[in-house]
Each structure stands twice: as C-alpha cells, then as structure tokens.
Give the backbone structure.
Amino acid sequence: MRIFKLNPDTNISKIMQKLGVDKPGIEIMKKKASNYIFYIKDITCGAANILKQDALSIGAELAVPIGVPNCKKEKFDAILFCNQKQLEILSKKELTQPFKLKDFAKHLKKFVNLPKFSLKIMGVINANDDSFFEGSRFRGIEAVKEIEKMISDGVKIIDIGGVSSRPGSVYPGSAEELKRVKPIIDEIYKNRLYEKAIFSIDTFKAEVLEYALERGFKIANDITGLENDEYAKIVAKYGATVVIMHKKGNPKNMQKNPFYENVILEVDEFFENRIQKAKDFGIKDIILDVGIGFGKRLEDNIALIKHLEHFLHFGYEILMGASRKSMIDMIMKKEGLKIPTAKRLPGTLAIHIESVRNGASIIRCHDVAEHFQALRVFEEIRNFDV
C-alpha cells in the first residue's frame, strides 16, 4: 500500500469515476473534498473497510470502488479526503489497526506539518556551445560579468555547467567537461564571488565536482541522482549540498517512449532510495529535483508540477527547473502554435509560479531579473493578510 498527496485543485469526480466509485457516492463525496486528498494505491479490502469506518467517525471520507465492502477484490485503489485536524487524528488512530495500517499511519503523519522554505532563484551559466538555450552560454571573463549581473538582479544561487543534458545529447568526456568549466571556476575563485552568492556545479563526474568544491562551490547538482559512489564520497567529504534529480534513461535515449504506471509514486520511490544512499555516505544537506523533461512525457511533467507538494514529505527543499523547456512548445502545439526556445519565457514563468505555489522553493532559470520580479509580486499577493 502506497499513498501520494493530490493537489486540492484536482478533478476529484473524474478520478473517482476511474476508480469505479458509484455515482451517488461521487456526488456525496466530492462535496467533502478538502486541502488533504490522498490517493491510496493497492489497499487491501480489510484495511479499506477499517479506514473507511475510522474516517467516517471523525467526519472524513474514503472513496472506494463498488464492491469493496464485500471484498470482491483483494486490492484496489482509494481516495482519502480529510482536513488538517482529521489528518492528525487518523495518523494516530491507524497506528493501532491491522492490515498494514500502522505503516500507512506512519507515512500519513509525514504530511501533518509539511515544511516551508524561503524562495531562492538559481541562475544558469553554461560553458558549452550545445546547451539547448543559446542565451545561457558564456565563457571566462564574459561569464563573470553575467554572474555579477545575476547577483545584482536578485539571484541567490548560480549553477555552472559544462555539458548539455538535453534529449539526444552525447557526453564529451570528463576531460573536455573540466576544460570548459575550469576557466569560469577559476575566475569565481580568484574574484571571491562565492562570498556574494552560492555556487552550484552541474556535473555527474566526481573529478569535475571536486575541482569546483575545492574552489568555493557549495552545491553538487547531479542529474544522475547520486548514481556514482565516488561522487557521493566527495559530496560528503566537503560537506556539500547535493541536488538529487530523477531521470529515466540517459540524455541520449531518455525521450524515446518513456512510460510510467504512476509517475508520482515512481519518482517518490527513487527519492526514497537515493536519500537513504546519501545518508549512508554521510551527506546531510539534500535538495530534490523531479527532473522535468528527463525521461518524461508531457503528461508526466504536468502531473509532477501539479502534485509537487507531495514530495515535501521527505522534509527537503524542492528545486524546479523547467526554464524554456520543450513541454511549453508541446502545450502550445495544441493551439496550432510552434514556440521556439527563445520565445518560451511566458510559459516558463507560468510553470515556475505554479511550482512555487505547489511547494518548490528553488527555481532554476535562465532569466533571473524576470523571475525575480514575477516571483516577488506573486509572493506579495500570496502572503497578504486582510
């Protein structure tokens, strides 16, 4: 049995129809929809009957398919509706129940008080000529000027990368990667720019990572999500923060027919495993990145953005990086429009604002000044109290 938190702004009626909930029940239960809606996968009949009675006893609700009370199926999916107080009660009450509801309660408890983090913008500097957005490419002294501009525009973190990870890209080798980023890293170190902003190195190679961490960098941005043990050792050695990103496949083949039965649960399981690995190596500071566009279909990307808050149950900051990505073009093609990379800023801002609404606290982007303004205005409105 596994669960994930749904965005409250979800068509609950449609989901209940797919589950096989009877129509009169849908009409009654959709009125009980609240800020806490959990999709429960593979719950047993015994567990469902107990949970439903416990939920009803405190004013909450469990939507189940027709036939569940008679146990016509051994396992099925269900939806739990509750408010904050009911969530607290259920996360305690189910600890005493059988049918693995004790484990369910422990997981449910993680959602009682989801963490909140201050918002930060991460600017992007690419030291390669094949990054998908030409406007992010800089070298040496030119990169330093752009870094200083980003800092004045409100950036908190700057991510430096030397290779492209766009779909279809081929890795040029660690020697070439280091050759590209070394001049920028050296300039940052020489000018002590690491005192003005936090620097992140976008690499999955241990030798490139160590070169950066030795020179003032604080974040290891790893698109392989700590796949390499030596990489993990170096992160721990320097007490750095690691960005664990999810991807399916590698940049060369990741967009060739990717498929997920449930993208939220698959990414969740990946994070669970890699967070444990990080802890085993002594890494304490972690950031999670769901990997928009890395082995994902359009519907997978949208689901991850919409239900992003689910991943806060791990207790770590969430990074969102959808800047100018192809999903914007895919969406606009439905309107008969083709949007080139250079024209995707409006779509980028829409995705990133929605991501912050749904729990992201670090926004990785190419357009720092525009993001600073948009997100600052968004936060002012969101935090206004009458």
The mean pLDDT is 93. The first strand starts at residue 2 and ends at 6. The CA atoms of residues 41 and 77 lie 5 Å apart.
